[in-house]
Amino acid sequence: MGIVIGVVGPHDLVDDVAATCEEQPGVSTLRLDYDHESQAPAIVEAHATSVEGWLFTGIVPYMLARDADVLSRPAAFVDYSGATLLSALVRLQHEGHDLTRLSIDTISPADVTATFVEAGLPTERLRTLGYRPESTSKKVIDFHRRGPAHPVITCLSSVHEALRGEMHVLRLAPSVHSVRVALRQLLLTAEGQAQEDAQIALGLVEVDGEEGLLREAGALGGTLAAFRGGTHLLVTTRGPLYDATGGFTGLPMLARLAAHTSVARVGFGLGRSAAEAESLARRALARARRIGNVAAVLSLRADTDIVLESVTSAPSGEQNLPVLARRVGLSVPTLEKLLEARDAAGGEALTTREIADRLAVQQRTARRMLHRLELAGLAERTGNLTSGSSGRPLTLYRLTL
What we know:
This is HTH domain-containing protein. InterPro entries: WH-like_DNA-bd_sf, WH_DNA-bd_sf. The protein is an alpha/beta fold. It has four domains: about 5-80 and about 175-195, Rossmann fold, CATH 3.40.50; about 95-175, Rossmann fold (3-Layer(aba) Sandwich); about 200-310, 2-Layer Sandwich (Alpha-Beta Plaits), CATH 3.30.70; about 320-400, Winged helix-like DNA-binding domain superfamily/Winged helix DNA-binding domain (Arc Repressor Mutant, subunit A, Orthogonal Bundle), CATH 1.10.10.10. The chain contains 16 helices and 17 strands. It has helices at about 10-20, 40-45, 60-65, 85-95, 110-120, 135-145, 155-165, 175-195, 215-220, 240-245, 250-260, 275-290, 320-330, 330-345, 350-360, 365-375; strands spanning about 5-10, 25-35, 55, 75, 105, 125-130, 150-155, 170, 200-205, 225, 230-235, 265-270, 295-300, 305, 350, 380-385, 395-400. The chain has a six-stranded mixed beta sheet. Strands 2-1-3-4 form a four-stranded parallel beta sheet, sandwiched between helices. The protein has a four-stranded parallel beta sheet with strand order 6-5-7-8, covered by helices on one side. Helix 6 crosses helix 7 (about 155-165) and helix 15 (about 350-360) crosses helix 16. The protein starts with a strand and ends with a strand.
């Protein structure tokens, strides 16, 4: 079974990096190029379900995607220090440039210094600007324009395009060795994630009636079987369970089951083997029994138990906000603002931007909140609305809390 890697970068680098990746047996790539590095987050979000990992052609698009909170798969970037920077220095020397007076962006000053020291070159008159989260193309361009005339080494295609008509600019391209190192790191991370997601998760379920139970098992990507003493055994894996519980914070199926039965207790165990998972599930169910008739607990190794709280269905105006806040991991004031937004919309769907504006938060924060509500059955996606610009479409949500 192979692995699909999404390669993200400028047009002229993606094909070469992807070709190097595909030399590795079992690796195929999805080539995703952009005109400007600022487009990287939207590209990642649009293709998140098509890949098992991300490889960025440099640190800048990687950091932009990471800071936008769109990386749901393992990711790595090609490092331009070391051999890549050294090969650029050799090229500049062959062209007759003074290697003691250079302006270098993106690579950390420490890595630049280490490369120059290894090459026996002085560093006193170098100008370096390492990557920072607040960096923009304009700031990098302004940095290179300051000071006396000097050759420029840049890692950004946008900076190269802006400066190549006014000074000597050399844009770094990742070496084959650097790509292989980054790919190896990514494959190790992806394999570890896959093994973790494939951990066995066993659930022991106690209910008075079986209505809806088979459907809930299917939603978890699992199977259902009869167990001893009238208990049901739900078999799934860590990945689907993690997604369905919003990162092990709540269990929406509990409230749905409780709507049809007076007793709904679930004990999940997560282990490296079926025997270990069953033992932990037994412990979790025992604790759920002590909590009450409607309860769910997840037991992990090292004596760790997580109570997956839920509440029985209630009319919107009668929601217990403190309990609901704990269930979905949001504050009571935030839920109150969401209720106000729902009422003001008259039941109509709202865009993520409208929610963000009402909560006075960034859109990515609003998306995370809405995702939690969706997992808890308190919001539903109804479609997308084109924003009228080159940015990502705005997702429409109907709030049902």
